[in-house]
């Protein structure tokens, strides 16, 4: 009631306080809510969600004209403008008689969009106000809405000392909306820095791996060239004695035939002059035949020797690549793949041509195809 004093002036005397709005009644209501949620085994339900390390899509429920919403959007709009995170806003009263209905509509809208395009987290912010205004948030329907949410919820109601039941059952709570957006911004920046570090590590490892492979290929190429030269030199050493031996045998045979001809000419020199002429003609013919036969034999041996040399010279890998062939290799072991069975065990092959390499993939479902002999022209 209002009273007047001559010395102190007007004053207001509180006669009684509605027990429904005393701190003791609010705490009692909060305790009852907590016990009911624990009894229904949903008090810790939202805390079972694992908060993501990074945020890409965030839903926000807040009063439309709250000061805390402006603080939140000061940083959120910058993140959204840089395409770092998308923020979707849903509005509801946080005090008064319309809280329950508007909050339920907001949760339904969040869940509907979450089904088609999931959010990483739901943020509930208010932004300050009188302590007694919090009692409208300490109701069972609102607490159950948050507990049954199908995504993690972060609260920033705006009181540093006094929490609501929503703060208790949320996955994580902050004192103010500014701290909520500060946490989101910190996680985004931290993950971006980690991603950059991971990319640099991958890039460094890739360059190192490519350098090692290049060194391995260079070494293998040098080994192949050295082995080819050694093989060619060895075959030349084996062929040259054969060529010399063939020449000696041919010359010996030719000399033997000449001696035989001379002996035959001596033996036919008989007193019969008429037969001498015939014998000379026959002898000359025979000599020509022998000479031609020896020449043919020598020419044949030389051709065979040249063919052997050409075959050996064309057996090197580089020569085969120049002729249009290619070399199949296992890209992991860099070993040649020489059979169809080996190819089936190596789904990815590296084909070497004269001008470079190409990657090939084996169709393992087809298996080994039978060789088509319809176009085989070999003898």
From TrEMBL:
InterPro entries: Exonuc_VII_L, Exonuc_VII_lsu_C. It holds the Pfam family Exonuc_VII_L. The keyword Membrane does not apply. One of its GO terms (cellular component) is exodeoxyribonuclease VII complex. Its EC number is 3.1.11.6. One of its GO terms (biological process) is DNA catabolic process. The keyword RNA-binding does not apply. Keywords: Hydrolase. Residues 45-360 form the Exonuclease VII large subunit C-terminal domain. It is an enzyme of class 3 (hydrolase). One of its GO terms (molecular function) is exodeoxyribonuclease VII activity. This is Exodeoxyribonuclease VII large subunit. It comes from hydrothermal vent metagenome.
């Amino acid at each position: 009631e209002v009273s007047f004093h001559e010395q102190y002036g007007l004053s207001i005397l509180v006669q009684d306080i509605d027990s429904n709005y005393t701190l003791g009644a609010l705490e009692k209501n909060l305790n009852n809510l907590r016990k009911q949620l624990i009894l229904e085994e949903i008090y810790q339900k939202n805390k079972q969600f694992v908060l993501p390390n990074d945020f890409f899509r965030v839903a926000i429920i807040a009063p439309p004209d709250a000061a805390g919403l402006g603080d939140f959007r000061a940083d959120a709009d910058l993140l959204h403008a840089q395409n770092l995170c998308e923020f979707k806003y849903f509005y509801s009263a946080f005090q008064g008689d319309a809280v329950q209905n508007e909050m339920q509509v907001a949760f339904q809208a969040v869940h509907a969009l979450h089904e088609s395009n999931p959010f990483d987290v739901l943020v509930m912010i208010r932004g300050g106000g009188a302590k007694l205004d919090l009692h409208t948030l300490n109701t069972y329907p609102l607490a159950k809405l948050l507990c049954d949410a199908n995504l993690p919820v972060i609260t920033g109601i705006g009181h540093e000392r006094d929490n609501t039941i929503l703060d208790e059952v949320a996955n994580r709570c902050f004192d103010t909306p500014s701290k909520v957006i500060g946490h989101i911004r910190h996680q985004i920046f931290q993950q971006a820095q980690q991603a950059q570090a991971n990319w640099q590590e991958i890039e460094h490892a890739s360059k190192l791996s490519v350098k090692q492979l290049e060194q391995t290929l260079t070494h293998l190429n040098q080994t192949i060239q050295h082995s080819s030269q050694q093989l060619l030199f060895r075959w030349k050493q084996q062929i040259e004695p054969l060529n010399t031996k063939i020449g000696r045998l041919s010359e010996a045979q030719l000399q033997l035939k000449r001696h035989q001809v001379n002996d035959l000419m001596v033996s036919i020199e008989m007193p019969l002059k008429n037969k001498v002429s015939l014998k000379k003609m026959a002898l000359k013919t025979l000599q020509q035949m022998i000479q031609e036969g020896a020449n043919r034999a020598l020419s044949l041996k030389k051709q065979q020797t040249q063919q052997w040399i050409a075959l050996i010279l064309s057996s090197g890998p580089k020569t085969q690549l120049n002729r249009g062939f290619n070399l199949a290799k296992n890209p992991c072991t860099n070993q040649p793949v020489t059979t169809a069975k080996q190819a089936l065990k190596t789904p990815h092959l590296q084909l070497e041509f004269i001008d470079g390499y190409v990657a090939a993939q084996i169709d393992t479902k087809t298996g080994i195809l039978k060789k088509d002999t319809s176009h085989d022209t070999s003898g």
